[in-house]
Amino acid sequence: MYGFLVQFSHNPLEFASIIRLFHRAIAQSGSALNPWAFTKSSRDPAFRLGKQLGCATDDARELVSFLRSVPSSSIIKAQDNVISAKEISFGLSFPFVPSLENDTPQAFLSESPMDLIKDGLIHEVPFISGITTHEGIIHIAKNRATFMQKVDKNFKKLVPQDLVENRCPASEGEISNKIRQFYFKDGDVSERNILQYIDEISFGLSFPFVPSLENDTPQAFLSESPMDLIKDGLIHEVPFISGITTHEGIIHIAKNRATFMQKVDKNFKKLVPQDLVENRCPASEGEISNKIRQFYFKDGDVSERNILQYIDLLTDTHYGLGVYNTVKEHAASCASPVYYYQFAFDGQFGLFKRFFGLESIKGKAC
């Protein structure tokens, strides 16, 4: 991407012609104004990186020459150690992010994102931006008890930097106290709080707003259900691939698994896919639930002991069933090729197994 930018950055007309290719934009769960996405200068971390790797210099050219000679793997291993104590924040921290450059013809970013937006120096297109409810959960450390004690002790570090810049230092404590009071009232920050927070999350990944049926008007985008559209052939026929990843239901596993699995066992009916019980008498829901429980868990309960079966259940209900029906109906109503895949590679960099502490489970693609 950088090489691509360099190719047209010298030619304003070429830059303008490429910008016109972008007709709309979606910024999902992030902004250049987030504290982890932009910094005024990356100079100090760069020199700390050089020192970490064996080049203690204050000469930028010497540093660049040295870093170009170092294996990329060594840089990756060393970069997390260059963040100073002052720069470390609780949560996701990156040692190198976009930063201001000198105002030269080669510069990509010579003004802060906030100034660019305020001055209207942006490409104006329809724009969607937003957040996901409770997405701050990705910043929770696995060792939560110790982590939360650390947060409580160093609460001032949670104050966004732009709230205290250009203010007197004394105001930082005042801002910190207001933030603490807003979120935690008169309580401390502890495991007790985080459990209340996690309890708000339902079984599985839930979104408050997803595509829904609209009245059948000229402006409507979706006036029939996806299943009806596929069955009636009211879709754009192109070669089509759909599929699932082995055991991707793992992303719906809560970290506090013992308590979570007890909750699942107690409320098992909530796992029954809605389309299996629609248009049936209410009494049949229990029958369906029992059949599903028997299929996956035989006569056992839902617990940490049989977490693999639970992951299989989530994979099937949250992904497999919908994808299977989609592929089946596409194949029935379309002349174009339809492909059905299952991704099952169990690599060493699988994100969710590491995230949920399930590295010991082999053969799981996530």
Automatic annotation (TrEMBL):
<feature type="domain" description="Carboxylesterase type B">
    <location>
        <begin position="20"/>
        <end position="194"/>
    </location>
</feature>
<protein>
    <recommendedName>
        <fullName>Carboxylesterase type B domain-containing protein</fullName>
    </recommendedName>
</protein>
<dbReference type="Pfam" id="PF00135">
    <property type="entry name" value="COesterase"/>
</dbReference>
<feature type="domain" description="Carboxylesterase type B">
    <location>
        <begin position="206"/>
        <end position="349"/>
    </location>
</feature>
<dbReference type="GO" id="GO:0052689">
    <property type="term" value="F:carboxylic ester hydrolase activity"/>
</dbReference>
<dbReference type="InterPro" id="IPR002018">
    <property type="entry name" value="CarbesteraseB"/>
</dbReference>
<keyword id="KW-0325">Glycoprotein</keyword>
<keyword id="KW-0378">Hydrolase</keyword>
<keyword id="KW-0719">Serine esterase</keyword>
<dbReference type="InterPro" id="IPR029058">
    <property type="entry name" value="AB_hydrolase_fold"/>
</dbReference>
<comment type="similarity">
    <text>Belongs to the type-B carboxylesterase/lipase family.</text>
</comment>
